[in-house]
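Preliminary data (for renewal application), magnesium ion complex.
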Amino acid sequence: MSAKIALLPGDGIGPDVVQEAVRVLRVVDVKLGLKLDFEEALIGGTAIDATGRPLPDETLELCRASRAVLLGAVGGPKWDDFSKADRPEAGLLAIRKELELFANLRPAVCFPDLIGASTLRPEVVEGLDLFIVRELTGGIYFGEPRGCEPHDGGERAYNTMVYDAGEIERIVRLACEIARERSGKVCSVDKANVLEVSALWRRVATRVGEDYPDVELTHMYVDNCAMQLVRNPKQFDVIVTGNLFGDILSDEAAMLTGSIGMLPSASLGGSVGLYEPVHGSAPDIAGQDKANPVATILSAAMLLRYSLECLEGAEMIEGAVSKVIAKGYRTADLHEPGTKLVGTRDMGDAILEALDGATGESDA
Ligand code: IPM
Ligand code: MG
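Predicted structure:
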């Protein structure tokens, strides 16, 4: 039985970084006999150019027939003038919705060797290891009605933030399950002092929390959370929140680590998981062997952990990445004096070399 992995490299640096992650996965495959079977499809701007649509049917079919999806990035200036429904980003939103990926997991870990890369003081971020659980298929991103219309001789636009209790319950439950495997702390973030949606969110979260007496559930307003993240981020372990708040807070959390090029993500919920780096498509450096492939390589590790239940492979990859960072290899985004500047391909090579001879246990 082979495990089919759909590859959606997408736009900009997407193909550069996905290529390296695939090389890493192939090595782990050989070591552990996973029988991975890769198949590529189009998404985003490149899909628009080839088919006229950001998420072609064939792509969706391939994803549905796969065990997991590894995605690079979508978007670029070439498609910036397209209307919202035809933009590359619409492909990403559509695939999340179609595959019912309601949970977006974004770990923000500060690598000990990269402390200097953060704009915050070392003692504030040293040892930072937080985990954002963002609701991904609901809230204001998808709420109806939405639109833009003529109004009073001008225009007005509107969106709807909406959650039903079931949507809130399943994401908070997942966050509690994740917290059980970590420090047992969940902070649910909302704007319950102003929004009805958030008041419901808080009520449901509180109710779910009662099923997890071993998990300490707290609540925080989103504005305060944004402030606390830069004041004292280590007070948090798991943060659970809605789609829009999670979009914003996860970028903030990523930057605490100083290295958005290092951060992976997993989107789960339906039968197929989707894995992608947190960073964007960086069209200015696409195809130039400059992009940092680590976030995508670590996303491949998450793929092994969550979709293939291959903990050993995930830990092998994570161990190899830590080793290479400790050795001082840096792509341009993280390069500082005294470290070794490498391109995308050389970074991949270094990680492959570190994988060689690695076993899950000794390198975890
Ligand atoms: C993200 C991105 C996307 C989002 C965009 C590209 C649609 O910012 O994955 O965080 O807003 O969800
Ligand atoms: Mg975002």
